[in-house]
């Protein structure tokens, strides 16, 4: 058993569409534990820090506009293999191709506005949890 923590963002499209409760329910029913959670307004500097590996990508300016377009919900989830468990629940990046039954597969139809973020490795999770919730040990 490998208990991990991972950083999840419920992105502004999900907040605007009123999907926060349904998305949280998926994580909770999977027996992931909510360690911390907060609704935030993100500025460009925070977006750049979070997505630092994408700063040079052609899609990044539009992605930054999107994640700063309204409130999002940031949370830390904990559980056995939480990093990969969350990514399976989230589904493939492109909502048009994401598996039915996943969050993106059921509710997203976009490559950019895809409702959720989940850390992609334990190393990324440690960095992102520290960035969003510096008070967490
Ligand atoms: P992930 O969120 O599934 O880990 P990443 O490749 O890390 O996917 O991309 C980060 C975010 O950037 C995606 O969730 C999505 O919002 C956006 N994104 C990724 N690829 C594209 C693209 O080709 N066009 C527009 N937005 C994209």
Automatic annotation (TrEMBL):
Q: One Pfam family, short name please?
A: NDK
Give the first-level EC class, as a single word: transferase
Which PROSITE patterns does the UniProt entry name for this protein? NDPK (PS00469), NDPK_LIKE (PS51374)
Which cofactors, if any, are listed as required? Mg(2+)
- What main location does UniProt list? cytoplasm
SMART domains reported for this sequence: NDK (SM00562)
Q: Which reaction(s) are listed as its catalytic activity?
A: a ribonucleoside 5'-diphosphate + ATP = a ribonucleoside 5'-triphosphate + ADP; a 2'-deoxyribonucleoside 5'-diphosphate + ATP = a 2'-deoxyribonucleoside 5'-triphosphate + ADP
Q: Name one GO cellular component term.
A: cytoplasm
InterPro entries found in the cross-reference section: NDK-like_dom, NDK-like_dom_sf, Nucleoside_diP_kinase, Nucleoside_diP_kinase_AS
Query: What does the UniProt keyword field contain?
Result: ATP-binding, Cytoplasm, Kinase, Magnesium, Metal-binding, Nucleotide metabolism, Nucleotide-binding, Phosphoprotein, Transferase
Residues engaged in binding ATP? 11, 59, 87, 93, 104, 114
Molecular-function GO terms, alphabetical: ATP binding; metal ion binding; nucleoside diphosphate kinase activity
Q: Where is the active site?
A: 117
Could you tell me the EC number(s) of this protein?
Answer: 2.7.4.6
Q: Which GO terms describe its biological process?
A: CTP biosynthetic process; GTP biosynthetic process; UTP biosynthetic process
Q: Which segments of the protein form a coiled coil according to its record?
A: none
What HAMAP family is this protein classified in? NDP_kinase
Q: Which family does it belong to?
A: Belongs to the NDK family.
- Function comment: Major role in the synthesis of nucleoside triphosphates other than ATP. The ATP gamma phosphate is transferred to the NDP beta phosphate via a ping-pong mechanism, using a phosphorylated active-site intermediate.
Its name, as the record gives it, is Nucleoside diphosphate kinase
Species of origin reads Propioniferax innocua
